[in-house]
Amino acid sequence: MQPKRKLTLADYQTLAEFRYALRGFLRFSEDAARSAGLASQQHQALLAIKGFAAMGPITIGHLAERLQIRPHSAVELVDRLEARRLVRRTPAPLDHRQVHLKLTIEGEEILERLSASHREQLARMEPQWKRMLEILHQEPPPGAGGTGQE
Amino acid sequence: MQPKRKLTLADYQTLAEFRYALRGFLRFSEDAARSAGLASQQHQALLAIKGFAAMGPITIGHLAERLQIRPHSAVELVDRLEARRLVRRTPAPLDHRQVHLKLTIEGEEILERLSASHREQLARMEPQWKRMLEILHQEPPPGAGGTGQE
DNA sequence: TTGATTTATATCGTTCTACGATATATTTTG
DNA sequence: CAAAATATATCGTAGAACGATATAAATCAA
User: Among A3, A10, A126, B77, which is 20 to 30 Å from B9 by CA?
Assistant: First the structure.
């Protein structure tokens, strides 16, 4: 359970840089969603519904799993999306407890715009992220752990 | 401003997979922070303070920039951290408007534990993330865009 | 130096999202 | 058919960030 080696200042810096990059992406995404009139989680829900489509219509429970939230939180999220006419609930024919979710035309349109800009942004960020992930992955050679400062 | 090519179902799936992986990491991080008795943002603030240390003591304003939040939100975050004795404010000697932030011993200890587990988790996730980022980066050849399912 | 402007931090009230606890409807099990 | 399990829904609460605004310190203009 103990870490294999002591963390150096450089390790903290790398972790902090990674978080900074992550925050940068999340802010981009949040701003993009807000520009489209959505909360970030609403955008992510649209994407999860659309991305699941190939496996059949998604239920509230599956949506919750994809977003890593509790099912009853997904209920509330879908409530908001349905109020904005971006998603529609349909009772599942086989199991009447379940609800199937489907994007409306408007939901599809908003998601398409957001997905296009996200794909571009992720492509832009890819080299930086890759570099940071590699640094985090590899163990530095012994004696090479310094502060890296000055 | 228009996307270069139409998004395929596979594109949505890849974007959704990427978000799913991201959510997975964020949930891991949130759970880890919660286990240490912290909110996720509190953990991220500790990391940002520590990671900035090589560039000198961090101010509220710099912390806000690193976390991509407004300065007055950083104030509130630091309020909570100081209440838990994880961070201490010190008036900046040169500019008395500024405040310098420093981790307490307890703050250092908690951060060290969390950073070690995060480094391991990121190393675990690295291959998957790298793969997804590459897929998002490269343009698929024309006619190759399918659903990718089954 | 003094007064105006800018910068850094702080305070207040509000909003959003997720949560725990709980409820209802439907399916499955015995 | 009754009991247990599953899926979705409702209600009240809490945490974090925000906009608007306030205060203190530094800088600039003349």
Answer: A126
> What band does B4 get if pLDDT is binned at 50, 70 and 90?
low
Q: Which residue of A has its CA nearest to B8?
A: A112
Residue B21: exposed, middle, or buried by beta-carbon count in 10 A (0-12, 13-18, 19+)?
Answer: middle
**Is A148 a domain residue?**
no
In a domain, B1, yes or no: no
Q: Do B122 and A68 touch (CB under 8 A)?
A: no
**Domain-embedded: residue A54:** yes
3-state secondary structure of B74: helix
The string of pLDDT tens digits covering residues A19-63 is 999 999 999 999 999 888 899 999 999 999 999 998 999 999 999
Domain that holds residue A29: 10-137
Q: Residue A78: helix, strand or coil by DSSP?
A: helix
The spacing between the Cα labelled CA in A91 and the C1' in C15, in angstroms, equals 32
Domains contained in chain B, number: 1
All residues at 6 or more sequence positions from A29 whose CB lies less than 8 Å from its CB, including other chains: A40, A43, A118, A121
A66 touches strand D (CB under 7 A): no
Chain B contact for A3, CB < 8 A? yes
